[in-house]
Design brief:
With about 325 residues, the chain is of the alpha+beta class. The chain contains seven helices and 17 strands. The chain folds into two domains: about 180 residues, Rossmann fold (3-Layer(aba) Sandwich); about 140 residues, Jelly Rolls. Strands 7, 8, 9, 10, 11, 12, 13, 16 and 17 form a nine-stranded antiparallel β-sheet that branches. It is globular, with a radius of gyration of 20 Å.
């Protein structure tokens, strides 16, 4: 049985709790553990990427680590989270995959009074799937969410305790009907092979991106109109600001921040977390502005070479029964 652990920065750490669990299983186990950890993103970003992760992995089961991101602190509408979760559960159920919740601790979350873990528990009970909650304990976390060596061992044991209990979702599919179909158009599929690429590989997740040099514009034709919610791109020492055009809309977004001393994926939603925006368009263009960002790095040396950005995917959605929204 191939088990895919879907998660965020805690899952992405390597070697982390997933690797420790795999080592404890041993090479003779009938279970293969793999992971895709999306560091630095939130569920309203990840919902667009989960379908493109499930397709190539073709797992038999999915374990979800979705208690660790920081969305509780700034997501005003809980229904936005419910839609993100429902979209994944709908796909898991439709594909007949086994499932389980792995709720890992944050320093600012009390699982005794947490709407996320409570909702996971309700779904687990209603659909006959397991939930394991790892409570916050002294010595488990080294910061607000990432585990110490002791914590990684505890998380690994919690993961292992789920494996024999994973089960298909047994319950009404219409409970998940409120969620649009979220997906992503990969930039490399929208342009020719002659365009320069950058392969970002981190935490078990690979994304091939199209590079955009300083002062240049990358135009991505979608082939049909889509509801566009955001995009993924490269955050690293040479990125900068994009001028983005979606049909008749022009949007400026700065990819560079204080953590751009190493390469990682940046996920961008149009609008604020409490006011996510929708744009209908059949194409998008990304113009790499040449200016060096005046933003100090937390560490490392500022790279003053010409700006060089990259676009990985376009986040789209559509409602059931409509081709593209």
């Amino acid at each position: 049985m191939k088990v895919l652990v879907l998660g965020y920065s805690v899952t992405a750490e390597g070697p982390g709790f997933v690797e420790i669990a795999a080592q404890k299983l041993g090479s003779g186990s009938a279970i293969t553990l793999v992971k895709a950890g999306l560091g630095g993103v939130q569920p309203y970003h990840a919902r667009h990427l989960f379908p493109s992760i499930l397709r190539p992995h073709k797992p038999d089961a999915v374990i979800l680590d979705q208690s660790t991101p920081g969305y509780r602190g700034f997501l005003r509408d809980r229904k936005e989270y419910f839609r993100s979760l429902h979209a994944l559960l709908r796909d898991v159920q439709a594909q007949g995959l086994k499932f389980g919740f792995l709720d890992l601790p944050r320093i600012d979350v009390d699982f005794a009074d947490d709407w996320v873990a409570d909702y996971h528990a309700r779904l687990a009970a209603d659909y006959g799937v397991p939930q394991v909650v790892v409570p916050l304990q002294e010595g488990v976390l080294r910061d607000e969410v990432h585990p110490t060596e002791t914590g990684r061992g505890i998380f690994a044991d919690a993961l292992l305790s789920l494996l024999d209990r994973l089960a298909p979702l047994k319950g009404p599919a219409d409970r998940f009907a409120d969620a649009p179909r979220y997906d992503a158009l990969m930039a490399t599929d929208l342009v020719g092979d002659h365009m320069p690429r950058y392969l970002l590989s981190r935490g078990g997740y690979d994304e091939n991106m199209v590079l955009v040099g300083s002062g240049l514009t990358l135009t991505l034709p979608f082939g049909a109109p889509y509801v566009v919610r955001g995009f993924s791109g490269l955050m690293w020492p040479r990125c900068g600001a994009f001028e983005i055009r979606l049909a008749d809309q022009t949007i400026h977004h700065q990819m560079y921040n204080e953590f751009c001393y190493y390469p990682r994926m940046g996920a961008v939603m149009f609008g604020a977390p409490h006011d996510l925006q929708r744009h209908t368009a059949s194409w998008a263009s990304f113009h790499q502005l040449p200016e060096q960002p005046d933003i100090p790095l937390r560490k490392g040396t500022v790279n003053t070479m010409p700006r060089l950005g990259a676009i990985g995917s376009i986040f789209i959605e559509h409602q059931e029964g409509t081709p593209n929204g």
